[in-house]
Amino acid sequence: xxxxxxxxxxxxxxxxxxxxxxxxxxxxxxxxxxxxxxxxxxxxxxxxxxxxxxxxxxxxxxxxxxxxxxxxxxxxxxxxxxxxxxxxxxxxxxxxxxxxxxxxxxxxxxxxxxxxxxxxxxxxxxxxxxxxxxxxxxxxxxxxxxxxxxxxxxxxxxxxxxxxxxxxxxxxxxxxxxxxxxxxxxxxxxxxxxxxxxxxxxxxxxxxxxxxxxxxxxxxxxx
Length: 223
Fold this sequence. Notes:
With 223 residues, the chain is mostly helical. It is 51% helix and 3% strand. The longest helix is centred in the last third of the chain and has 18 residues, at 182-199.
């Protein structure tokens, strides 16, 4: 299918952010399985502090000053909520080649502050995830949170909930569930940056509004 011309797409009224960013974005809270994360990370002797609270907000996840593994554990916990999904497999794949995971995550985090396409390509340069089990629905969360909450951070979360909504908005060439190629992620970040500029807000406010509105249409999770 030919790539959709995104210049013709408009943000529906229901997805235009209205609540303050500190509430709708920074304060978005997810209950997590804290004990599982602490036990699973400790038993594998993985680096980075596991989540210490039973609830994480976005602001808790993007808290600065810690290494990439602490950021990854918080990201995975926030993204998973009460459903552990494939996190044992993800932790096992990281444990098997810890130095490589550290190098990839460090590079991706650095690139996330400059270039969404380059950041995405660090973790998925073609049709394969370089960290097994860590696919776009979760690693785009890592790329987003690596920005430390900066309103202008260029990387955003792309998951199946947001992708499904974007198809309803007219982006017919975007796959609902992924995995998405590098250029789709780059175009997605650019589209939300445009919409944010048009509506006088930050790009992550648009993403959060799309997700929050879409989950009431049917209910979904933060995958």
